């Protein structure tokens, strides 16, 4: 049996009638969500002293993977002289990942912890330890890398467009994508690790890609504003939705098999990509439309006189 192309399902990006909404209406939702995300991060910082929960790669600590013969989570916790930070089950393997986070007091070395696990009848499958000083160095390098990547992206965008409003629209959208992703990490209890830092770097790349695509179609290609917007959306939305589906599948499969790192990376990427859709086609678009129809003349006046009339 042969199927023609007309019989196959085809994904079509719907054409949105942006003329029904003002720039304020388009920008209100993403800005409100950004504000909520900032409040969550600020609240988390006030409660914990850190804007996001950090894994042992940044704080230092010990992680032990044990196989048990029907032991409960409570029995695993009671087997150690120090209370674990977390005990996570790996359903596919029938094992548990026990994490001890370094807090500078009452710490036990990894050899003693493995001995306690063996005395309780657990089989040790893996164990490793990260010193607090090494974790601090790793944290500085990782977060510094995110900062340098964001700064480099901002400079590149300004060099490409050489116009303030379209450039700042891309930077604000990327910033919002990162902030929303970090806030949701706090809400869902996803720790900042080397894997999730990589996911945040990928979100910056995705965000810049979709925003530059939109800006290029509107500012540098011929055609009506809304026609150019729809052309950009057909490519950008399809690309982003495909990535969201792929990352969702990866997160679901990784969760089922207990691969926590991949599950965390996939989840963070899904959050960031969904936020990117909103920020690109609501926030960025509203700024571009203001610039295209009102801001060009006013910004030219500002450059000549130093006075900007809104």
CATH topology name of the largest domain, in short, is: Multidrug efflux transporter AcrB transmembrane fold
**Mean pLDDT metric:** 83
Q: Tell me, briefly, the overall form.
A: elongated
CATH class of the largest domain: Mainly Alpha
Question: How far apart are the first and last residues' alpha carbons, in Å?
Answer: 63 Å
CATH architectural grouping of the largest domain? Up-down Bundle
Q: Flag low-confidence runs.
A: 1-9
The structural class is alpha+beta
Number of self-contained structural domains: 2
Number of helices: 9
Q: How large is the share of residues in beta strands? A: 5-15%
Q: Give the name of the CATH superfamily of the largest domain.
A: Multidrug efflux transporter AcrB transmembrane domain
Strands ordered across the widest β-sheet? 2-3-1-4
Main β-sheet description: 4 strands, antiparallel
List the helices and strands and how they pair.
Blueprint: H1 23-48, H2 56-59, E1 61-67, H3 73-78, E2 86-90, E3 95-101, H4 110-119, E4 123-130, H5 132-161, H6 164-188, H7 194-220, H8 225-256, H9 260-305
Antiparallel strand pairs: 1-3, 1-4, 2-3
Helix pairs in contact: 1-6, 1-9, 5-6, 5-7, 6-7, 6-9, 7-8, 7-9, 8-9
